[in-house]
Design goal:
By secondary structure, the chain is of the alpha+beta class. Mean pLDDT is 75; it is low at 38-166. It contains 18 helices and 10 strands. The chain has helices at 117-120, 170-173, 176-209, 213-241, 243-267, 269-284, 286-297, 303-332, 335-355, 368-375, 389-393, 396-425, 431-461, 466-488, 494-508, 515-522, 527-555, 558-579, and strands spanning 4-13, 16-24, 30-37, 44-46, 56-60, 82-84, 93-100, 111-115, 133-136, 144-151. A hairpin with a 2-residue loop joins strand 1 and strand 2. Helix 5 (243-267) runs antiparallel to helix 7 (286-297) and helix 13 runs antiparallel to helix 14 (466-488).
Length: 587
């Protein structure tokens, strides 16, 4: 007698279905158990005596040509839960797990013996089994684990339930969409590690080469020359060719430029400016490409937290770069920073090529359940072949994104590039202290970005409109830094200055659930281009703001630097709350 598995719908507890599995072995010994499943709510269940839509699923492991047999139910039809087809067009989707034991029933811990006839109302089916008694399983552990997946309406549920082997390891069950998010996180970690190392290395470099503050500002801003060039281009490339190719290209490009920086500095200032601009070209495609790939992989219910996690990679990259750069410089000299950080890109690229895909439809390993969860009933659209520039630029919410991004990045890039100099010149910290204390604000941003993401997604889940959520989060991201930078010009102790800087950056991190999530809200198909447009304005803020800070410091003070940033934060708050939206405006 071959092994046989019979699945019977037994009942329902709250929102879960209770099913009974009967396994008949080669010796006729039966193994019976109950388990539950959480079905997708696309079908209806009810207690209907004698309903014909109930199904029993049996698989025979004998010869492949043998037809599967259908066992009689172990319970009377009046006591069984049956599937009721509410609509023939609806699909029944259910994923269940059952735990099977090959141990002896009496000696393996089964309890509560009952006669089989007490459930069936008679002994009509006594011939189906070798033993008339069974025990209901109450063990907390099973010998093996099997998974069933049933798809279809009650009229087309297959007659067989497949028993696969052991479940895959946990890392193989990790959702593919979050694998993409984690890889994007590490790419942004490398992005800011390679960017901020110059903020520390510029101090010994300027002492060695005799650079003035104006020259230092020029070197710092040269990165943004290249960064500006590839914002829109990176978005166009990502929307046409996929985010995987473009982001991979960017990481390799900027990693090579990072390792060439010491060589260029020794050759002369013009060479250094060119290499820093080349590095900006590579990093310029990162944000548009990431935005494109996440717009395809992440459903709206997870958008804020996924983007917050990715952007927190930038903040932790700043933490890592600012923490390790002083150590490497003191032990091995300033060139070691560029060689060490730049070489890490090759490791990331190998993992990216192996694990990443531009969209779920291109991934052969993604499960159907996860694909349905990501798409949410939407159809997969073809890659963008042409960009409707006139339509995009005619939308006020798009301009709200552009202006707000400019206002936001003015203050953010000033802190990113000039913070070590501020700690060194104003607060009188040495090089090591400057690098270590610069870690605190960025670590605060990494923490609060993820807190803001969870808050935003929770508000959306509770029914708050996406428009209101984006406005609330971005208002915190603007007004918080404005308040703490105003306080920064009033404090007189280093400890209070560091605290104000940390609070400013922490509240700034709420922007990841505001304007940085809004590109995918208003036009997911053009998410790369939209971020390229707004981030172009943000890069211009970085170019002008970083260079202007060096000029202001020659003529004025740090108070003047912070005052300009506060004014722009307030302007951004007004524009954002008047013109932004969370609704889709571009199809």
């Amino acid at each position: 007698m071959p092994w046989q598995v019979t699945v019977i719908l037994h009942g329902r507890l709250n929102s879960n279905l209770i099913l009974m599995v009967v396994v008949t072995g080669v010796t006729g010994k039966q193994h019976e158990l109950k388990y539950s499943t959480s079905p997708h709510c696309r079908w209806v269940c009810s207690l209907v005596p004698g309903d014909r839509n109930g199904r029993q699923i049996t698989r025979s492991t004998a010869d492949a040509a043998q037809q599967p047999s259908v066992q009689q139910p172990l319970m009377s039809s009046s006591a069984m839960m049956r599937f009721c087809n509410a609509s023939l067009k609806r699909r029944l989707l259910s994923k269940v797990e059952c735990f099977l034991s090959s141990s002896d029933l009496v000696t393996s811990g089964w309890q509560k013996p009952r006669r089989r006839e007490s459930l069936t109302g008679g002994s009509d089916n006594a011939s189906c089994v070798a033993r008339p008694e069974y025990r209901v399983p109450t063990r907390k552990r099973a010998d093996c684990k099997a998974k069933f997946e049933m798809t279809g309406s009650p009229s087309d549920v297959p007659a067989e339930a497949v028993l696969p082997g052991e479940d895959a390891a946990w890392w193989q069950q990790f959702p593919k969409r979050w694998t993409i998010v984690v890889l994007c996180f590490f790419s942004f970690l490398l992005c800011n590690m390679d960017r901020v190392n110059m903020s520390i290395a510029i101090l010994p470099m300027s002492a060695e080469y005799g650079w003035s503050p104006a020259t230092v500002g020029l070197i710092q801003s040269s990165f943004f020359w290249g960064y500006l060039l590839t914002q829109i281009l990176g978005g166009i490339w990502a929307d046409r060719f996929g985010g995987k190719v473009v982001l991979g290209f960017g990481v390799v490009w900027w990693s090579i430029a990072t390792m060439l920086t010491p060589v260029a500095a020794k050759l002369g200032l013009p060479f250094l400016l060119v290499v820093r601009a080349f590095m900006g070209i590579g990093e310029g495609v990162a944000m548009p490409a990431m935005n494109n790939i996440l717009s395809k992989w992440i459903p709206v219910s997870e958008r804020s937290r996924s983007l917050s996690l990715v952007y927190s990679g930038m903040y932790l990259g700043s933490v890592t770069g600012l923490a390790f750069s002083p150590f490497l410089i003191s032990k091995f000299g300033w060139p070691s920073v560029f060689y060490a950080f730049g070489s890490l890109g090759s490791i990331w690229f190998a993992l990216w090529q192996r694990k990443a895909r531009s969209s779920p439809s291109e991934d052969p390993d993604i499960s159907e359940d996860e694909k349905r969860h990501i798409l949410g009933g939407n159809t997969v659209k073809e890659p963008v072949s042409s960009i409707p520039w006139r339509l995009i630029l005619s939308k006020p919410p798009v301009w709200a994104l552009i202006i707000s991004h400019f206002c936001h990045n003015w203050g953010t890039f000033i802190l990113l590039t000039w913070m070590p100099t501020y700690y060194n010149q104003v607060l009188k910290f040495n090089l090591t202290e400057s690098g270590l204390l610069c870690v605190l604000p960025w670590l605060t941003m990494a923490v609060f970005a993820n807190i803001g993401g969870w808050i935003a997604d929770t508000l959306v889940a509770k029914g708050v409109s996406i428009t209101n959520v984006r406005k609330i989060m971005q208002s915190i991201g603007f007004l918080g830094p404005a308040f703490f930078l105003t306080l920064l010009s009033k404090v007189r102790t280093p400890a209070m200055a560091v605290l104000c800087m940390a609070c400013s950056q922490g509240s700034d991190a709420f922007s990841q659930s505001g304007l940085y999530s809004n590109h995918q809200d208003i036009g997911p198909r053009y998410a790369g281009v939209l971020l390229g447009l707004s981030n172009t304005a943000g890069v211009l803020a970085g170019v002008f703001g970083t260079a202007a800070t060096g000029y202001i410091l020659q003529k004025g003070s740090w108070d003047n630097v912070f005052q300009v940033a506060v004014i722009l934060y307030i302007v951004g708050t007004v524009v954002w709350n008047v013109f932004s939206t969370g609704e889709r405006i571009l199809e």
